[in-house]
TrEMBL record:
Keywords: Cell inner membrane, Cell membrane, Membrane, Transmembrane, Transmembrane helix, Transport
Protein name: Autoinducer 2 import system permease protein LsrD
Bilayer-spanning residue ranges: 18-37, 49-71, 77-95, 102-124, 130-150, 171-193, 222-241, 253-270, 276-295, 302-324
GO cellular component labels: plasma membrane
Subcellular location: Cell membrane
InterPro entries: ABC_transp_permease (IPR001851)
GO molecular function, one term: transmembrane transporter activity
Lineage: Bacteria, Bacillati, Actinomycetota, Actinomycetes, Kineosporiales
């Protein structure tokens, strides 16, 4: 009798790494970038690389915890409102003369509180995350707009706003990407190399099975929503300093871009599947395509249509490949039974 194997690990390591959704997205980023480098004027300049990375930093940051949330089968639509609320709080405090370090810390605490609120309602009250975060999307945005009204606070210290555009030497890479790289390393280790991360996948595959295997489902979900709120607040601080303007309506609609990037990177909206390297590549793919099309004179509306079609195709391709895999498996079982 042959030993039982888990299908995903029955294949050689090189096939699991190279023949994966994540590898395909990474390869597509490289292809698009090299094509633009060779065929589009100014696309290969370090200045273009700088703007691509700066433009995508906010999405890159929020996509890290959002990936973990979606892997559990949940979702957080309030992230853009948390960005706006943290921006409004930061602007309000700076306007009233609070020192920047303290104002930044308080803005981060606001993100923690928002995450706790979402996480408590989802994990402990048992409400659907879609319904909860649609509600808090409106709630947090309303509070943010109420704090500043139509006012925009712009008098931030130059020493802070300049940090968002500083470059590492002549590489074209913004120094703030070091912060992202550190956070990415932490989240990758958390999701892919820790018992906590295995519990996240277990929850996404089956909440009941995860509970029976010893995973504290409620605590795990609460932690993930707190992480999402905290990182969204950090993204709000970056967003505010980058544009030098704090407004309650900052980052409106950003949640759709984040979710699109996460799904494009190979995370299943139904939970249980997905890897962070693929998500990071998905964000960069959107940034590279958008930048290349802008340099070619394509309008924003057309760019959005192209990105939307790419997302739909990526979701359809996952379902199509799953159908093929299931069909092959059924054929093999049918053949072996005869």
């Amino acid at each position: 009798m042959s030993a039982a194997t888990i299908p995903a690990y029955a294949r050689p390591v090189w096939r699991r790494v190279l023949l994966s959704r994540e590898a395909a997205v990474i390869a597509l980023v490289a292809v698009v970038y090299l094509y633009g480098y060779s065929n589009i004027p100014y696309f290969g300049d370090t200045l273009t690389l700088t703007y691509i990375l700066i433009d995508m930093t906010t999405i890159l940051l929020i996509a890290l915890p959002m990936t973990l949330v979606i892997v559990t089968g949940e979702i957080d639509l309030s992230i853009a409102s948390v960005v706006g609320l943290s921006s409004a709080v930061l602007g309000l405090l700076v306007r009233d003369g609070v020192a920047m370090p303290l104002a930044v810390l308080i803005a981060l605490v606001v993100g923690v509180v928002c995450g706790l609120f979402n996480g408590f309602l989802v994990a402990y009250v048992g409400l659907p995350s879609l319904a909860v975060t649609i509600g808090t999307l409106a709630l947090f945005r309303g509070v943010a707009v109420g704090l500043l009204g139509t006012e925009a606070v712009t008098d931030f210290p130059t020493s802070w706003t300049e940090q968002t555009s500083r470059i590492i030497g002549s590489t074209g890479i913004p120094t703030f990407m070091l912060v992202f790289a550190a956070l990415a390393a932490v989240f990758i280790a958390l999701l892919h190399f820790s018992p906590f991360g295995r519990g996240i996948y277990d929850i996404g595959l089956s909440t009941e099975a995860a509970e029976f295997s010893g995973v504290n489902v409620q605590r795990t979900k609460l932690i993930l929503f707190v992480l999402t709120g905290t990182v969204a607040a950090l993204a709000g601080i970056f967003y505010t300093l980058r544009f030098g303007s704090a407004r309650g309506d900052n980052a409106t609609g950003l949640e759709l871009q984040v979710i699109a990037a996460v799904l494009l990177g190979g995370v299943s909206i139904f939970g249980g599947k997905g890897k962070l390297p693929g998500v990071i590549a998905g964000v960069l793919l959107i940034g590279v395509i958008s930048s290349a099309l802008r340099l070619e004179g394509v309008t924003v509306n057309v760019i959005n249509i192209i990105i939307g079609l790419l997302l739909v195709l990526s979701v359809l391709s996952t379902s199509f490949l799953t159908w093929i895999s299931d069909s092959v498996s059924r054929t093999k079982r049918s053949t072996s039974s005869h």
